[in-house]
Amino acid sequence: MKDLPKLSTDMVERFERDWRAVAGEAHAGLVLIALSGGGDSSALLLLFAAAGRGGVFAATVDHGIRPEAVGEAVRAGALAAACGVPHVALAGVLPDRSERTANLSTRARALRYRLLEEHADAIGARWIVTAHHADDQLETMTMRLARGAGLRGLSGIRARQGRVARPLLGWRRAELAAIVAGCGVVPIADPSNGDDRFDRARVRKVLAEVDWLDAGAASRSAGALAQAEEAIGWMVDRLAGERCRIEDGQVRVRADDLPAELRRRLVEHCLGQIDPVAAPRGADVGRALDRLASGAGGTLGGVRYDVAAGGEWRFRPAPPRRAHRPSDLPSTPPLVPLPLTGIGLS
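User: That's the sequence. What structure does it adopt?
Assistant: Structure tokens below.
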């Protein structure tokens, strides 16, 4: 770092252990830090800089939501420059929807990761690194628990997803804030963090009043659940290879003798074989399972499912919906012109 105080040796060594634990053998690959300029991502930048390794880049995303974002990207770039880290500001147009929702936070997240992925490709970065930490993990698990999430959802924020790595899941928000303050850095405050219109902001306020919940323990639990989720995924891949048959554009599987969760995962696998972009809701998959178990069939998205002879569950493309012919449409009475008097027109 050029003009910033040095971090303690113990802190840097702790970070290096955590980074290697997440990145594994590819820990030396080029890194792109998602740098908002807030306290968490600023601490992540400072830790990488203090570790003294090369191949670190940073990018700040302007989602086009707040006019202040342009100036915030400049401030984030100044901090990156002080750390000797190349920085760019990225901007794009928010998608109208992300998967099934028009939720603003979800759309912003989709744009953010798309821009980061594109820039990582452009510079040859192996990793996109974000500053999610133990308190974020507790908030995420709390929100998902309140929504009735299963194992997949309660696995929380993953330490590693593809090229996205999160080495700070064992760190507390207060620890990161202390790093930033100790280096004399004034982080950017995101107003959405205190905006009650957002679920996470409301949950954060509630958790701040609860002193018996240990965010570190919750993060460890999420890690254990993530390992269980990985094990189930491994088992489903193996079962799919053994039990799924693809022929004549159909997928067939024998799953009625398996535990419930494996039946669910195999059905999701079969749906994805027919419609790769399908993302059915858990409740919809549950209803499909109930119908298959009773010998019935149905349609889910673009996939038709039923029980074939011999008891195999069968999945195939659903027939296209029949377009209405003019004779199919209900007749409507002819339009009668209304008088224009009395409604402000002349």
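The chain is about 45% helix and 10% strand.
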